[in-house]
Design goal:
The chain is an alpha/beta fold. The protein has ten helices and 27 strands. The chain folds into three domains: 214 residues, FAD/NAD(P)-binding domain, CATH 3.50.50.60; 122 residues, Alpha-Beta Plaits; 92 residues, Glutaredoxin (3-Layer(aba) Sandwich). The strands form six sheets. Strands 1, 2, 7, 8, 9, 10, 18 and 19 form an eight-stranded mixed β-sheet that branches. Strands 5-4-13-14-15-12-16 form a seven-stranded mixed β-sheet.
Length: 469
């Protein structure tokens, strides 16, 4: 059977859209299908971590993301209608040469998805709405996906990016293992409200058993606030305007009529779960289909974007560059371990055991122990193979500018680049910044150092392994 597309992406959330963008810029014929009639309308994943901002820089949407959002305001704690103190949600961090986007950036999820969808369309990609995947079959040559409207589509590979209740994951028979993070249900809603300033994240602490917590955060770039509230175990939050008004009046000094509109609302029970596998044959799981987080710490959406960013270049290498299909095995190896670590972090932040700070920025994530990583130096410097490649200015060239695009980059820092390698990868030469150390650093398209050495010995073999012949 011939394939209708190279890659079918099920789900037009941040994961699916990011993957669509990455494949489109590589010339891979990919199609994003979405069960709903339109993009997700809520603010849910509003926090973009610094590592995600670096990804968005590479994908060409950073300026739009920065224009659409803003920094997080200080938390203002209220008690009996009085302001009783401030609370910083995040440990402060100033931009540095190696980490220019060092603080979380707030953009409502619906706006992030609009920006990603516009970029996908600009690159020639597309999203088809109203297509619900209900069945998946595969063979040695491809994947056949059946839709609820009776349609069928054939792809060489498919990616399940269809959320925590993933129909594709269920069709594949892949289970999820996890735990309930908090037995009490939570409500999240986008509201219009009067009587609160937009300079603070307004926190109304629990007044007894801890089950009546509420926080109201102004959503940067909009006129809305995001309301989050916890409820006792066994209860069912009322998502109506009247229900939200009663909630706000009961837990704050505000009057019911101060809530003028509920624009979107949802309830959920915080849980942490990890798919038992991230791949079944020619089908991959990414984003919430592969891991479900507590919203605390803002790791879910960001980890999902990293999944797409990791998978995109590998699919491109196999489909367009002639890389061995075995390269795709490294997706699960690298991403499942990282997702597990981020799940633990999210749960720890939710339970108040870990502050939002260095770990939640995701700049320290690495693949040092992965099979695709080769460190050939006897005494590695500060940056090792498997690490995120920091930004820097080398001989007048900003490294993030050099990395931008779907290519590989070789950094020859304080040493000579091998002959002929410039025909295969982009080369940057110059003195070694202190936070890098001297050496040759082959930077993958997703901004991690894949190979590092003192000389070019072994570099050609590595390049062949990843399709850069």
């Amino acid at each position: 059977m011939t394939a209708d597309v190279d890659v079918l992406i099920v789900g037009a959330g941040p994961t699916g859209l990011t993957l669509g963008i990455d494949l489109a810029r590589r010339g891979v014929d990919a199609l994003v299908v979405e069960r709903a009639a339109a993009l997700f309308p809520g603010s849910r994943g509003k926090g973009l971590q610094p590592r995600t901002m670096e990804v968005f820089d590479d994908l060409g949407v950073l300026d739009a993301i920065r224009a659409a959002g803003g920094t997080y305001p200080a938390g203002m704690i209220w008690q009996d209608g009085r302001r009783v103190g401030e609370h910083r949600m995040f440990d402060p961090a100033e931009p540095t040469e190696d980490s220019p986007y060092n603080e979380p950036w707030m953009v409502p999820q619906w706006r992030t998805q609009e920006i990603l969808a516009a970029r996908l369309e600009e690159l020639g990609g597309r999203v088809v709405f109203g297509r619900e995947a209900v069945g998946v079959e595969q063979d040695g040559d491809g994947v056949t996906v059946r839709f609820g409207d009776g349609g069928v589509l054939r792809a060489r590979y498919a990616v399940a990016a269809d959320g925590g209740r993933s129909a594709v994951r269920h069709a594949l028979g892949i289970g999820m293992t996890g735990e309930t993070v908090d037995p009490g249900p939570m409500l999240v809603a986008d509201v219009r409200i009067t009587g609160l300033d937009r300079d603070n994240w307004h926190v109304f602490p629990p007044r007894g058993d801890g089950e009546d917590f509420m926080a109201i955060c102004p959503l940067a770039g909009t006129e809305d606030f995001q309301l989050v509230a916890r409820f006792p175990e066994g209860s069912t939050p009322d998502l109506t305007l009247d229900g939200v008004r009663k909630l706000v009046a009961a837990r704050s000094h505000l009057a019911p009529e101060d809530v003028t509109e509920v624009r979107w609302a949802s309830d959920f029970r915080p849980r942490a779960a990890l798919a038992d596998a991230f791949r079944a044959g020619r089908v991959f799981l990414a984003g919430d289909a592969a891991h479900v987080h507590s919203p605390a710490g803002g790791q879910g959406l960001n980890t999902s974007v990293q999944d797409a960013y990791n998978l995109g270049w590998k699919l491109g290498a196999v489909l367009r560059d002639g890389a061995p299909a075995a390269l795709l095995d490294t997706y699960e190896e690298e991403r499942r371990a990282n997702a597990a670590a981020m799940l633990g972090l999210s749960t720890s932040v939710h339970r108040g055991e870990t502050r939002r700070g260095e770990a939640t920025r995701q700049l320290g994530l690495h693949y040092r122990d992965a099979s695709l990583t080769e460190e050939t130096r006897a005494e590695p410097g500060p940056v090792r193979a498997g690490d995120r490649a920091p930004d820097a200015t080398v001989d007048g060239v900003r490294l993030f500018d050099a990395f931008r695009g779907p290519h590989w980059t070789l950094l020859a820092l304080g040493t000579r680049a091998p002959e002929g390698v410039a025909e295969t990868v982009r080369v940057v030469r110059g003195a070694a910044p202190a936070f890098y150390g001297a050496g040759l650093f082959l930077v993958r398209p997703d901004g991690y150092v894949g190979w590092a050495g003192e000389t070019g010995a072994g570099l050609t073999e590595y390049l062949a392994r990843v399709g850069r012949h």
